[in-house]
Specification:
Blueprint: E1 12-13, E2 17-18, E3 32-33, E4 39-44, E5 50-54, E6 74-82, E7 85-93
Parallel strand pairs: 2-7
Antiparallel strand pairs: 1-3, 4-5, 4-6, 6-7
Length: about 100
């Protein structure tokens, strides 16, 4: 098996890159989920510091820390719980 592993659940799309640079394209990291199970998303940096969390599937991360300050470009990590399912992986923030 070669290439990326894709999680294919029809009601769920987890992006792996976004660019919060104000150009109105991919400015938010938004998990697309159209199901009705409870939703909880957390975003961490590589040192394990929490930068974002939400229970609102319509609210995306805008590349800021918990105090609203822009975080640097780089790799971040998500933890996502939907109902009794858990997902985790990395995402890239590009400015």
């Amino acid at each position: 098996l070669h290439g990326p592993i894709v999680v294919n659940i029809p009601e769920l799309f987890i992006p792996n890159v976004f660019s919060p640079n104000g150009d109105m394209q991919n400015d938010r990291y938004l998990v697309e989920y159209n199901g009705s199970q409870p939703f909880f998303l957390e975003i961490y940096d590589r040192w394990g510091r929490l930068h974002y969390q939400t229970k609102n599937k319509m609210q995306g991360w805008q590349g800021t820390d918990l105090k609203g300050r822009s975080v640097p470009e780089g790799t971040y990590y998500y933890r996502l719980r939907i109902g009794d399912r858990e997902f985790a992986g990395d995402l890239t923030l590009v400015r």
